[in-house]
Every structure is written in structure tokens, then in C-alpha cells.
Specification:
The protein is mainly alpha-helical and 451 residues long. 60% of the residues lie in helices and 1% in strands.
């Protein structure tokens, strides 16, 4: 925030507020009128910031970009920064639910981009006259604001949650924000033009509250639809898991482990989403497995094994008609392929197996081995990791096993594959849960449970 205030101070000294933003009170354009104009746009921005949309990452998105850019168009970077500083408070900050340093970071992530956008706008507007060029300049300036704002917000998210900037920038929620730019940028330009048009004036800008609110509602619907989709997938996974009392929450845990491994391997945000939803749905094909096979506590016969081993194919067939889950199909179909080609259903070898399926396979194996069975107790984290190392290059991708070791799921566990690795403090919080029947490594190993 200190940097934002310093930038605002320097800007105000070098580039004074343009009188165009003045809101005439007595027909003049004195300092009081300029102050009234800044106050007017501050109030408009506060209203636009009042109902932000909450993203899953914890970031909040408002439609205040339009009035911010309008104030910058009219009054320059200093006016825009002042409006950004005081006009972007939300109810959480007013009620003290956000720590002071969080509030400072939030406002700095808006003030600095607004100043940058104002400087870009001033430079471009001086290159050519005309309304069309001014609109182009406003679009470019808003793009500069948006990119810098998103960069600063992503830094805050990375610092707070430990996620990578690449993950934040490629999330579906974040990429959808670019669509907002296409509507909010020209909308801000129109608000500014109407504000200074003789015969129209400040009150006409209030009419733009309707498209602003519509934009906000549309984005809210987008977020809600994604959340509903995720909840529906989770409910389906829970229904599959609850067929067996020993597999309750299995898919949820596999999802969490898979995503953590994916982060260690620096997969993209769309791939993390595929791991998340694929982890939830990887066993959906067991809907078609009879209870006599699925719930059998003893060793499966050859015929029963063939029925059980068909569940990845059946799962892919069930999910196939859902276009939105196209990226998850390879994960569901191939999560039981072995690295040496002896898995099923297609006996793929090595890199022929989709990388996300290889990640899910390790997550599924670890979760199964560290969960109780009706016929055996759960393995310790160290024992399960030993099995993963033992069958790395046979059943599991060694690179994925190496990545798993770096996650908190392998914490407090000595890695038999690396003599220099010290025990990491923390395991019980994740691993010692319930069970799942799973096709583990080779017959006779602790992980070789019926699937």
C-alpha cells in the first residue's frame, strides 16, 4: 500500500486532476466542483463494488472497472487513483472482517493499475484526435489496468495459498474475466462521454447501472453453475463410494491427493481441474458392478475379476456423453493402466498412458493402501510409500512417485527411494482414513487388494 500511496503522491504532483471531471454546482468549474466530481465517481464506484462475486480461490470480482476507467478518462490518473483508493471498499473491509494489511493489499492492487492505465491513456490520446481513437485508447488502457491488477492479485493469492501464478492465471474462472473486459471497457468510455455531454450530464451515467448489474449477475451465474456442476459430481462420487461402507469419502481423498501431486508436477489449471473432477469420478463405473462382486470380502474369482476390471471402461461410457467432462475421460478410463503395460483396460505402456491417469493411479493406490479393509488393517504411510517405490517403473510412473513424496500426504514418512530425505513432520491429518478396494501392485504385495 505504501507503494500505491507514493505513486499517487508523485502522480498528483506531476499530473494534476483534469477539470473535465468537475461536477458543476454553481455553473463554475472551481476546486469544489472538481472535488464534487471525484466524490460522485467514488460513490458510483462504491455502488459497483458493493456486490462482488466470490470465486472459489477466495478472490472477489466486482464490476467497478467501468466507473474507475470513466473517472480516469475524465480526470486523469490522479483522479482515477483517488476514486480507486476510496471507492473500492467492500462490506467485509468496512465491518473489519479483513485484516488491515489485507485491505491495504487489496487497494494497492487497484490503485497502482489505475495509475498505470491513466498514464497509458494519456500517452495514447495525445497521438491522434477523434472519438474513435479515444475509444481505442480507452480499450488499451483498460487492458493495461486489467493485466496489472490480475498480476498483483495473483501474487496475493500465491502468497496466501501457495498456489502458482500459472495456475491462477489459467483457471477457468480467471480466463472468463477477460470476457468482462470486452463489456466493461467500452461501458466505462460511454459513461465518461455521457457525463461530459451538454444536455446529458451526471444523472445519465446512473442509467448505466442496469448493464453493470446485468454483467455482475451474468458472472455470478457463471460461478454458480460451475459450483453446482462440481457439487453434482461430488454427490455422484459419494453415491458410488457409499455402496461400500469401507469406501466412504474415498473419491474425495483421491481427488485431494491427485491435485496435490499435480501441483508438484506443475500441471496447468485445466489439468488440475481434470484431476479434481477425474478423481471424484474415477470409480463411477462401479455403478454397474453387482454388489456380490463389489462387496465381496474374499478373493475374487477370475470371472468376478473380469467384471470388476471393466469399471474404467464403463465409467468412461457413463461420462462420455457429457461434453464438459471430455478432459476427464482419459483419466477415468486409464487410471488402472500399469507403467510396464500389464494393466487394464488397454495395456498402455509408459508415456502412452495419459499423464493425469498416471497421477491418479498413484493417488488411488496410496489412499487404498492407507485405509482399512474388512480383511486387513491399513498400512502405515511409510509402508505404503515403500510399496509405491517398490513398484515404481512397474506399476507406477517413477516421476509421479517422486512428486508424491514432496506432498504433505507423504509427510512423516521415510522415503526408501532417497537416502537423503529426512522424515517430514505431518502425516496423520491426511492418510489414516477409511478404505477402498483397489487393484494394487503385484499379487502378494500389501497393495494387491481386489478392485
Amino acid at each position: 500500500m505504501g507503494a500505491a500511496l507514493l505513486a499517487l503522491l508523485i502522480t498528483s504532483r506531476v499530473i494534476p486532476v483534469n477539470d473535465t471531471i468537475a461536477l458543476p454546482i454553481d455553473g463554475s468549474t472551481g476546486p469544489l466542483d472538481v472535488f464534487a466530481g471525484i466524490l460522485f465517481w467514488t460513490v458510483v464506484t462504491l455502488l459497483a463494488s458493493a456486490l462482488p462475486v466470490q470465486l472459489n480461490s477466495g478472490v472477489q470480482v466486482a464490476v467497478s472497472t467501468a466507473p474507475l476507467m470513466a473517472a480516469t478518462l475524465l480526470g486523469g490518473p490522479t483522479a482515477g487513483a483517488l476514486v480507486a483508493l476510496f471507492g473500492t471498499f467492500d462490506s467485509r473491509e468496512v465491518k473489519g472482517r479483513v485484516a488491515w494489511y489485507g485491505t491495504a493489499a487489496n487497494h494497492a492492487a487497484i490503485v497502482l493499475p489505475v495509475i498505470a492505465a491513466g498514464l497509458v491513456l494519456g500517452y495514447l490520446r495525445g497521438m491522434a484526435p477523434g472519438l474513435l481513437w479515444e475509444l481505442v485508447s480507452a480499450l488499451v488502457a483498460t487492458l493495461a489496468y486489467f493485466i496489472l491488477n490480475l498480476a498483483l492479485v495473483s501474487l496475493i493469492v500465491v502468497f496466501r495459498g501457495g498456489h502458482s501464478m500459472r495456475e491462477f492465471w489459467t483457471r477457468a474462472e480467471t480466463t472468463n474475466l477477460w470476457a468482462n473486459l470486452l463489456t466493461l471497457a467500452p461501458l466505462g468510455w460511454l459513461m465518461a462521454r455521457m457525463y461530459e455531454t451538454p444536455g446529458a450530464g451526471w444523472w445519465t451515467t446512473l442509467l448505466f447501472g442496469v448493464p453493470l448489474f446485468t454483467t455482475r449477475v451474468a458472472y455470478q451465474r457463471f460461478v454458480e453453475m460451475r459450483e453446482m456442476f462440481t457439487q453434482t459430481i461430488g454427490a455422484l462420487a459419494e453415491a458410488v463410494d457409499k455402496r461400500d461402507p469401507y469406501t466412504s469419502k474415498h473419491s474425495q481423498r483421491v481427488r485431494l491427493i491427485s491435485v496435490d501431486i499435480g501441483r508438484e508436477m506443475r500441471v496447468s489449471a485445466p489439468e488440475l481441474e481434470a484431476l479434481e473432477w477425474g478423481g471424484l469420478l474415477h470409480d463411477v463405473g462401479k455403478i454397474g458392478v453387482p454388489d456380490s462382486v463389489l462387496l465381496k470380502q474374499g478373493k475374487l474369482t477370475r470371472e468376478e475379476r473380469m467384471i470388476m476390471n471393466a469399471h474404467p471402461v464403463l465409467g468412461a461410457q457413463i461420462i462420455g456423453p457429457v461434453d464438459r467432462l471430455a478432459a476427464e475421460l482419459p483419466v477415468i478410463r486409464h487410471h488402472h493402466e500399469w507403467y510396464n503395460g500389464s494393466g487394464y483396460p488397454d495395456r498402455l505402456i509408459g508415456d502412452e498412458i495419459p499423464r493425469l491417469a498416471r497421477i491418479l493411479h498413484v493417488a488411488d493406490a496410496f489412499e487404498a493402501m492407507t485405509a482399512d479393509r474388512p480383511y486387513r488393517k491399513a498400512l502405515s504411510g511409510e509402508q505404503a510409500l515403500s510399496e509405491l517405490r517398490k513398484f515404481a517403473g512397474v506399476q507406477f510412473d517413477p516421476e509421479v512417485v517422486d512428486a508424491f513424496v514432496k506432498t504433505t500426504w507423504a509427510a512423516d514418512t521415510r522415503d526408501p527411494g532417497r537416502s537423503d530425505l529426512r522424515p517430514i513432520p505431518l502425516l496423520g491429518a491426511h492418510a489414516a482414513r477409511t478404505a477402498h478396494q483397489f487393484d494394487g501392485p503385484a499379487p502378494g504385495s500389501p497393495a494387491a487388494d481386489p478392485a
